[in-house]
Model the fold of this input.
Amino acid sequence: MAEDLIVQRPEGLYCPPGDFYIDPWRAVPRAVITHAHADHARRGHGHYLAHRDALGVLRARLGELSIDGLAYGETVEHRGVQISLHPAGHVLGSAQVRLAWRGQVWVASGDYFVSGVDHDTNTTCTPFEPVRCDCFITESTFGLPVYRWTPQAQVHAEIRQWWQDCAAQGETALLLGYSFGKAQRLLAGLAADGEPPGPIVVHPAVHSVCEAYRAAGVALPAYQVLPLPASPSARARKAATVVPPGAVAIAPPGVAESAWAAQLGPHQTAFASGWMRLRGARRRQGLDRGFVLSDHADWPGLVRAIGATGAERVIVTHGYEDTMVRWLGEQGLNAGRFHTEYGDERVEAEPA
Done:
């Protein structure tokens, strides 16, 4: 029986013949990183390998690293294992990891977003490309049939209309989205029809990631960085002295009740996330609006991506694992699960 190319260890997903890990959650000598979100890219590894577009964000988040970058489709060999990275469509530099060894091909997807007939392409990163393999390791963050995304062009149009409605009421539109990936998709969407309908301000955490996107050649509209307040007394400052009238502000979710948000003056708050598909999610978080926009594949996207690999064996990680494993088994596939420490959009750490 052939040796598995990837197994689960306490440190993370391990490749025994290559003696390296993929997105390990404990410190290891060698790590291949699918993308720079905090749950997949952690400090303390001896050496990192990632897509070259992810290097700027990785260094910004983790500090100076011993790291090598690959282009999509470029192959390196380590201890006889051929390693290549392929687009995942999730965020800038996100990659699926393809391993080939002794006639076996395994692909670890990390997190991914699938464009298709029902979805526009995420213009802020390279679109997902299926990779043929014998075994596919898939996420299942939104692995329930209820999760079916509205075309994102429609969602962006709804966001722009909400922004204009806020401006007409003399309020700032505070749009919450994760600083890496989601914020850049929101910025691109605000300018999807040409010039944005008003001024844009962003949180400093969003700006630091946007710089990496622009360095990678991703076009984003102009914006003003609204700095963190110097002291709690800044809450009393009038919005007119800080934020242009009719502005939209883009910030990570943790700032909703912060001194930074108080600088906006009167404002409405919305959150862009796949979790807004759930009835009651907006109400529980005290939001004025919720927009269903995710950087992960929905149920049809997961099904389409898995089928496109041609894999007869599928291993499911973080999310609705039981549902996905059961469904895959019903389709005649050899399905199992890895219990990982990866998070999702609800738990990803974000600065306030």
